[in-house]
Design a protein that fits this description.
heterodimer; A: about 290 residues; mainly alpha; ABC transporter involved in vitamin B12 uptake, BtuC; B: about 375 residues; Rossmann fold; five-stranded parallel beta sheet; 14 strands
C-alpha cells in the first residue's frame, strides 16, 4: 500500500507541475490586465503541435522541441496581442478584449482543425517509455522526470525574474497601478506585451510537455484549461505563489481520488474544493491584496 | 389546312413538353441522404473516416444509378454528443429534407436524435453505436447494422473466459451510455461464467493522464484481462500508461487488454509496443477473400492512397444497404423504412445484414477478432 501511496504522490506532482505551467500564464495575464484569456488553451495546443512537428516531421530532438514550442507560444502571444488585444484595449472597453479572447480561441481551434485534422496524433517522446525504478517499487518515466525538472526550473526562473530584475519589478508596478507606473517612466503597453509573451511562452512550453500525455488533437488544450482556471481561482487570482501551490495540490488530489475514491469523481472533488474556496476564502490559498499579487 | 397544322404543332409541342418533363424528372430522381457525423471534437476521427467511405460508395453507385435514382448526401456536424447532434439533426431535417439519414457513431448522440427521426418519419441507419437502447426498445425508424453491446459484450467475455482462460478482469470505460453499457454486459457475463471483476473504473472524456489509473490497477495483483471502452485518443493513453506501469504484455506484465469496434486500424502503430498482445474486435477484416471486400480495398486505396479502416468500411456498407433498399423499390422515407426492415442475406464489406423485429442486425460475422503482434502488425484470430 505504501508503494501505491508513494506512486500516486509522484503521479500527482508530475501532473500538478504541468497544471502549474499552464495556470501561471493565466494568472500572469490576470494579474497585469485583470483579464481572463480564453485563448490560452489553444496556445497550449499550438505548443504541443509545434513540438510534435519539430520532432517527427523534421526529425528534431524532443528536448529542443520544448524550446521551439516556447518560442512558438511567445510569437503567437506577441502576434495576437499586437493584432487584436492591444487595439481593442485602446478603445477603453474592458469587455471587448475579453470577448476577443473567445473569438481568438475559436479561430485558432478551427484553423488547427483545418491544418492538422481531427484524428488524434500519437506524440511519443523518446523518453515516454524509459522507466526509472525508484525506491520501494515506485517508478517515474524519464518523460515525467523531464516535466518535473523543466517545470521547476521555469518556475524558479520566472520567480527570480519577477523579484530581482528591473523588468520584473516594472511588471509588478504595472499590475499594482498602471497609470502611476506610466508616470514613473514605465511603458505599460510594452509590459503588457511582455506579459502576453511570457504567458504564451509558458503555455507553449507546457504544450510541448503535455503533448506526450494529452490526446493530441486541435482541442487538446481545452481539456486542461478548465482545471487551470480552477487552479488560478484556488491559488488566488493573479497570485503566482498561490497558483504553484494550488497546481500541485490539484494534481495530488486527482491522483489520490483516483486511487482511493473513484477516477470518475476527480472533477467533482476538485470543483467542490473550488466552490469551498470561493465560499470560505475567496482571496485564494495565499491571501494578499490584489495589487501585490504579481 | 392551317387548322390541321395548328393541331399537329400543338401535339408536337405537347410531346416535346412531356419528354422534357420526363427527362427533368429522371434527372431529379434523387435519394437524399443525410449524414450526421462528428466533424469536430474528440470523436471527429469517426466523421472524417465515415465521409471517406460514403463518398467512395456514392461515387461508384452514381456512375450507373440504382433503379433510376442517383444519390446525394449532405453532412452535418453532430459532434459525437447529444446537444450538437440534436441541433444538427433538426437542421438536416428542416433544411435538407432527407429520405434517409446515416449516423451517429456515438451512442449518446444517436439516442438523442432517434426521437427526432421518428417524429419526422425518416429512417435512421446506424453503423457505429453499440448501446442496447438504440434498438431495445429503439423505435421503428432506427436500424443498426453493427452488433450491439450485448452481442459484443457477451461474445468478448465468453472468449476471454474460454479461449484466453481469463479468471480476473478490470473494467475500464468512459462514462457514457455506450461505455457503461458495454462494461456492464462484459462484467455480468464474465461473472456468470465464474470470473471475478477486481475493479470497475469509469472516467470522463476529459481525463488526460491515465498514470494514476494504471497505478491503481498495478496494485490489484494478478489481472488477466482489461476490457477497455474508450475513443481512440484516450485508448492510446490508457494502453501506454498500462504498459509503463508494467501491467500489460506491452510493458512486460501478464494482462491482456481487450478492445472493441471503437478503435480504428492504425491504433497499434500509434500506441507502439505498448499494444503488444492487445486483443480487440473490428468490424472489417481486410484478409477476408470475398470480392466485395477486396474490391472495396482496391478502390479505397485508389481513391485515397491509404488503407481503409473499419470505420471507412461500415460507412461504405451503410450506403450499400440503402442502395439495396432502393434496388428493391424504395423511393421515399416510408418505403425505404418498410423495405429496409425486410433486409435479409445482404452481404457487405463488414459482413452480413439481416434485421430482426427491433431492426437490429442479427448477424455475428461482422465481429472479427484480432491480436497485436510484436512487429505491431496483427493477426485475425478467427474466433467467429
Amino acid at each position: 500500500m505504501l508503494t501505491v501511496v508513494l506512486q500516486q504522490g509522484i503521479n500527482g506532482i508530475v501532473f500538478g507541475s504541468l497544471y502549474v505551467l499552464v495556470a501561471l500564464g493565466l494568472t500572469l495575464i490576470y494579474g497585469v490586465l485583470v483579464q481572463i484569456n480564453f485563448a490560452h488553451a489553444d496556445v497550449v495546443t499550438i505548443g504541443a503541435f509545434a513540438a510534435y512537428f519539430f520532432t517527427f516531421a523534421f526529425g528534431g530532438n524532443y528536448l529542443i522541441s520544448i524550446g521551439i514550442a516556447l518560442m512558438a507560444g511567445a510569437a503567437l502571444g506577441w502576434l495576437v496581442n499586437a493584432a487584436i488585444f492591444a487595439p481593442l484595449r485602446e478603445r477603453g472597453n474592458e469587455l471587448l478584449p475579453l470577448i476577443a479572447t473567445i473569438g481568438v480561441s475559436i479561430l485558432l481551434q478551427n484553423a488547427m482543425l483545418l491544418w492538422f485534422g481531427p484524428i488524434p496524433y500519437a506524440f511519443d517522446s523518446p523518453y515516454s517509455n524509459k522507466v526509472i525504478r525508484l525506491w520501494g517499487g515506485t517508478f517515474i518515466t524519464l518523460q515525467n522526470l523531464i516535466i518535473v525538472v523543466v517545470s521547476a526550473l521555469t518556475i524558479a526562473l520566472l520567480y527570480a525574474f519577477m523579484k530581482f530584475t528591473f523588468m520584473g519589478k516594472a511588471l509588478r508596478a504595472v499590475s499594482q497601478d498602471r497609470e502611476t507606473a506610466g508616470l514613473m517612466g514605465v511603458n505599460p503597453n510594452q509590459l503588457i506585451m511582455l506579459t502576453f509573451v511570457i504567458a504564451s511562452a509558458l503555455a507553449g512550453m507546457g504544450g510541448a510537455m503535455l503533448g506526450p500525455i494529452l490526446v493530441l488533437t486541435p482541442f487538446a488544450g481545452t481539456t486542461v484549461i478548465v482545471k487551470a482556471f480552477a487552479i488560478v481561482i484556488i491559488g488566488g487570482f493573479g497570485n503566482v505563489e498561490g497558483t504553484i501551490i494550488a497546481g500541485l495540490v490539484v494534481g495530488l488530489i486527482e491522483s489520490y481520488t483516483t486511487q482511493f475514491v473513484n477516477p470518475g469523481l476527480t472533477d467533482i472533488v476538485v470543483f467542490t474544493l473550488l466552490l469551498l474556496m470561493l465560499a470560505l476564502r475567496p482571496t485564494g490559498l495565499i491571501a494578499e491584496k490584489r495589487e501585490e499579487n504579481v | 389546312m392551317r387548322k390541321h397544322s395548328a393541331i399537329l404543332f400543338g401535339v408536337a409541342a405537347s410531346v416535346a413538353l412531356f419528354a422534357a418533363a420526363n427527362a427533368a424528372q429522371a434527372q431529379d430522381k434523387v435519394i437524399r441522404i443525410g449524414g450526421l457525423f462528428a466533424m469536430s471534437g474528440p470523436g471527429s476521427y469517426f466523421g472524417v473516416q465515415d465521409k471517406q467511405g460514403i463518398e467512395l460508395a456514392i461515387e461508384q453507385l452514381n456512375k450507373t444509378g440504382v433503379n433510376g435514382y442517383r444519390f446525394e448526401v449532405q453532412y452535418e456536424d453532430s459532434a459525437c454528443s447529444p446537444l450538437p447532434a440534436t441541433q444538427a439533426a433538426k437542421r438536416l431535417l428542416e433544411q435538407y429534407k432527407p429520405d434517409v439519414v446515416l449516423g451517429e457513431e456515438c451512442s449518446d448522440a444517436t439516442l438523442a436524435i432517434m426521437p427526432l427521426m421518428e417524429q419526422a418519419k425518416v429512417p435512421l441507419l446506424n453503423a457505429g453505436s453499440s448501446s442496447i437502447k438504440v434498438t431495445d426498445p429503439g423505435n421503428p425508424w432506427t436500424f443498426r447494422i453493427m452488433p450491439n453491446e450485448v452481442m459484443q459484450g457477451v461474445d468478448i467475455a465468453t472468449n476471454a473466459y474460454k479461449r484466453l482462460n481469463a479468471r480476473t478482469a478490470v473494467l475500464l470505460y468512459e462514462n457514457t451510455n455506450a461505455g457503461i453499457g458495454n462494461a456492464k454486459v462484459f462484467g455480468d457475463t464474465f461473472k456468470s461464467l465464474g470470473g471475478q471483476i477486481l475493479a470497475d473504473i469509469g472516467f470522463g472524456r476529459d481525463v488526460n493522464d491515465f498514470t494514476a489509473i494504471a497505478t491503481r490497477i498495478a496494485g490489484l495483483g494478478k489481472v488477466d484481462v482489461i476490457p477497455t471502452y474508450t475513443l481512440e485518443g484516450q485508448g492510446l493513453r490508457i494502453t501506454q500508461a498500462l504498459a509503463q506501469a508494467g501491467v500489460t504484455k506491452g510493458g512486460g506484465g501478464q494482462s491482456i487488454q481487450l478492445g472493441t469496434i471503437w478503435l480504428p486500424f492504425g491504433f497499434e502503430q500509434k500506441a507502439g509496443k505498448a499494444a503488444l498482445g492487445y486483443v480487440r474486435i473490428v468490424q472489417f477484416d481486410p484478409t477476408d477473400k470475398r470480392d466485395v471486400v477486396q474490391n472495396f480495398i482496391r478502390s479505397f486505396k485508389a481513391k485515397y492512397n491509404q488503407e481503409p479502416t473499419h470505420i471507412n468500411a461500415h460507412a461504405f456498407d451503410q450506403i450499400l444497404v440503402v442502395a439495396d433498399v432502393i434496388r428493391r423499390g424504395g423511393k421515399d422515407s416510408q418505403s425505404i423504412r418498410d423495405i429496409m426492415a425486410t433486409t435479409k442475406d445482404f452481404s457487405g464489406v463488414t459482413g452480413s445484414v439481416e434485421f430482426d423485429k427491433t431492426n437490429q442486425n442479427t448477424k455475428m460475422d461482422t465481429i472479427h477478432y484480432m491480436e497485436t503482434l510484436p512487429d505491431l502488425s496483427w493477426k485475425a484470430l478467427g474466433w467467429n
